[in-house]
Design goal:
This is Glutamate-1-semialdehyde 2,1-aminomutase. This protein is of the alpha/beta class. The chain is built from 14 helices and 18 strands. The protein is globular and about 65 Å long.
Length: about 450
């Protein structure tokens, strides 16, 4: 039996998990009591299952959050580098957003009618991303789902293509993975009653020949992808891959959908603007309204015209897109304030060098201790991976995951007032993050590694 896990003694990893779980239990009696009370009415004791993904013995109940500081029900404070897994990427309750929500709260929350704010928001989105036409939904899942419908209607093709290891919210069509070279349903799906692989192709990220082969029959309506995979660890595009992707789509009449929901961390205008991508559609959820449920999808003028033609051809009836609360006035108030005053070039000018400092700091702690790990970052997002080489695709990223080590590190940090994303080893910095907070996170990770290696 191997004695090492990701270069660390398994015995030490197991001991840290036990020790940190015990410390968590002792330190959080109020959260523990709230968790017990919540089980009376909530399935598994939480209103949504992913609140259990922190791997704590019971959920951490939050009392308050502002900027990058989170306070729990027991009165402990945390430097928050998770930031709602990107939903609060620009800080908890940014003042302009909080002010806009408060001002609107007593004047109606949803009308099913537009207000003058739509003019300003549309202009801000075009300014930020370079696409002229937009629509609003409630979550990134909705935006992606609606865009897939439009792509199929425009091209009159049924199939889509995704990359192994992708994540585009809860869109059924994208829950496909590769196993032994063939497409399968993503493991763990509940209640799936029809074959997703009939209309979804899947290939590895960064594999240009496989992509070209999958598109050559001209039966794929669109490729939907993040420009860098971020939910299976971090997989960066290799040189020339995104250019080849765009060309393969153009050559085969396949539409290109860029999901910026995580890669908005790259810079102002996301990966798309920073690296000059030319998608047909762009989707963005999570942080676009400062943490309020909201998403947008944008498109080129040519695509907007093709959408109008497809709508006319479909005739009257229900499109299958839209929800009653989509594009409500509260979303627009929050989104306008966020786009005009929070998600600014000045904010990124603070965030990007600070995230670089964080990434290189963690990298130095890893190198100093001779661990076979690496750090990748995309703008304000950084992630340490417990493997020596940067993964080229989803399969390699999956193989690089070391659950026990990651759990030990996450618990160690949480018990010392530091939060990183529970699903993987992702960190985010916001406009409110300080250099002192970054230094504390880096130093605490170093201390954790020392204890693990002892």
């Amino acid at each position: 039996m191997a004695s090492l896990e990701a270069g660390l003694p398994i015995k030490q990893v197991d001991a840290m998990i036990k020790r940190e779980r015990d410390r968590y239990i002792q330190s959080n009696p109020v959260s523990r009591k709230l968790g017990e009370d919540a089980r009376k009415n909530w399935v598994k004791g939480v209103p949504h299952h992913w609140m259990l993904d922190w791997s704590t013995p019971f959920p951490l109940f939050v009392a308050d959050a502002k900027g990058t500081t989170l306070t729990d029900a027991d009165g402990h404070t945390y430097d928050d580098f998770c930031l709602g897994d990107t939903g609060s990427m620009f800080g908890h309750s940014p003042e302009p957003v909080a002010r806009a929500i408060a001002a609107q709260a007593s004047h109606g929350l949803t009308y099913m009618l537009p207000t003058e704010d739509i003019i300003a928001v549309g202009a801000a989105l075009e300014r930020m991303f370079g696409l002229p036409f937009w629509q609003v939904a409630t979550t990134a899942t909705d935006a992606n789902r609606f865009v897939l419908r439009w792509c199929r209607a425009i091209t009159k093709r049924q199939k889509i293509l995704v990359f192994h290891g992708c994540y585009h919210g809860a869109v059924d069509d994208t829950f496909v993975r590769l196993k032994d070279g063939r497409a399968i349903h993503r493991p763990g799906l509940i209640g799936q009653v029809y074959d997703l692989t009939a209309n979804t192709k899947v290939v590895e990220f960064n594999d240009v020949p496989a992509l070209q082969a999958a598109l050559k029959d001209r039966d794929v309506a669109c490729v939907i992808t993040e420009p860098a995979l971020t939910n299976i660890g971090m997989v960066l595009p290799q040189a020339g891959f995104l250019k080849a992707l765009q060309q393969a789509c153009r050559d085969t009449g396949t539409l290109l959908v860029i999901d910026e929901t995580h890669t908005i961390s790259t810079g102002y205008g996301g990966y798309t603007r920073t690296h000059g991508l030319k998608p047909d559609f762009l989707t963005l959820g999570k942080p676009v309204a400062g943490g309020l449920p909201c998403s947008v999808f944008g498109c080129t003028a040519e695509i907007a015209e093709r959408m109008r033609a497809a709508e006319q051809e479909a005739g009257p009836g229900y499109s299958g897109m839209g929800t009653t609360l989509s594009a409500n006035v509260l979303q627009f108030k929050a989104m306008r304030a966020n786009l005009e005053e929070v998600m600014t070039p000045a904010a990124y000018a603070h965030m990007l060098p600070l995230s670089e400092k964080l990434a290189r700091g963690i990298e130095a702690e890893i190198t100093q201790r001779g661990l076979p790990w690496h750090v990748s970052n995309v703008g304000a997002r950084a992630e340490f991976v417990c493997a020596p080489e940067r993964p080229r695709n989803g399969s390699e990223a999956q193989d690089a995951m070391h659950g026990p080590v990651e759990l030990a590190v996450h618990l160690y940090l949480l018990n010392r007032g530091l939060l990183i994303a529970p699903f993987h080893n992702m960190t985010l910095v916001s406009p409110a993050t300080t250099p002192a907070q970054v230094d504390r996170l880096v130093a605490t990770i170093g201390n954790c590694l020392d204890e693990l290696a002892a």
